[in-house]
Design brief:
alpha+beta; Chorismate Mutase Domain, subunit A; Aminopeptidase; 2 domains; eight-stranded mixed beta sheet; 53% helix
Length: 255
């Protein structure tokens, strides 16, 4: 038994010494992270997703050269970076605005999960579990991402909001606005729609969208963004759609 325990004890002691060195290095990294945080203007600069991916690519290559598992190193670094980002945000007091960027077909699975979570409350409101956003298939959503202007809002590695738009005949058809239930009320929906309108082609002259007649929070949001009711349409005995429009000229809203 001692022959087994002694080598194991020696290995564990070596690991402990290595852990002490790692913690010293982490303390040094934390000091540098705090210094960098004081130079950044907002939370988007703190989260810096492009910088994160560059770091991950570099450490994966370092892992391969050193004979380490690139996958394990990547998981460790992503967890470490996420922790330092939260530390940096807390230390600087910067507002944690989500990062908005294009959504791609590879995002379809996470977007579908987000969409179903966001629209569950609508299904309860109307007593209709068959609302289109809840029954859309993964393949259908992926196809939409390839043929529409699709945006996602992220915090760290998590997608917390999304919206899609389809330009046609000078009109931007806005749809599938979704914000994670625990992230609602923080301006993410507003930011997504404004970003979508800004991303629309210059020939767009009008934006249009719809929501259910009982979705009062949605209606208030759209009205704050300059949309006005154009017509109503009975979809089912439980659901009446309220269609809203907004006049635009290129990238500029007509006030």
């Amino acid at each position: 038994m001692n022959e087994i325990q002694d080598p194991l004890a020696e290995i564990r002691a070596s690991i402990d010494r290595l852990d002490d060195d790692i913690v010293d290095r982490l303390a040094e990294r934390e000091r540098l992270v705090r210094q960098a945080g004081r130079l950044k203007p907002d939370a988007t600069a703190v989260r810096a997703p492009d910088r994160v991916e560059a770091v991950i690519a570099r450490v994966r290559e370092s892992a391969r050269r050193s004979g380490a598992s690139a996958g394990v190193v990547e998981r460790i670094y992503r967890a470490m970076i996420a922790a330092f980002v939260e530390l940096e945000l807390a230390a600087t007091g910067l507002p944690d605005r989500p990062v908005i960027r294009a959504a791609v077909p590879a995002d379809a699975g996470e977007l579908l999960t987000l969409q179903r979570a966001a629209y569950t409350s609508e299904a309860l409101l109307y007593g209709d579990p068959g609302l289109p956003p809840l029954v859309q298939t993964l393949d259908d959503l992926a196809a939409e991402l390839r043929t529409s202007i699709a945006l996602k809002a992220t915090r760290g590695d998590r997608i917390v909001g999304a919206v899609r738009g389809r330009p046609a005949d000078g009109v931007l058809h806005v749809g599938r606005l979704a914000v994670a239930p625990d992230q609602q009320g923080q301006g993410i929906g507003t930011a997504l729609i404004e970003a979508l309108e800004a991303a629309a082609p210059s020939q767009i002259r009008q934006a249009t969208l719809f929501t259910g007649h009982r979705s009062l929070a949605n209606l208030r949001l759209y009205q704050r963004l300059g949309y006005r009711e154009a017509r109503r349409e009975r979809l089912t005995p439980q659901v009446e759609l309220v269609h809203l429009i907004k006049e635009v000229v290129g990238d500029h809203v007509v006030e």
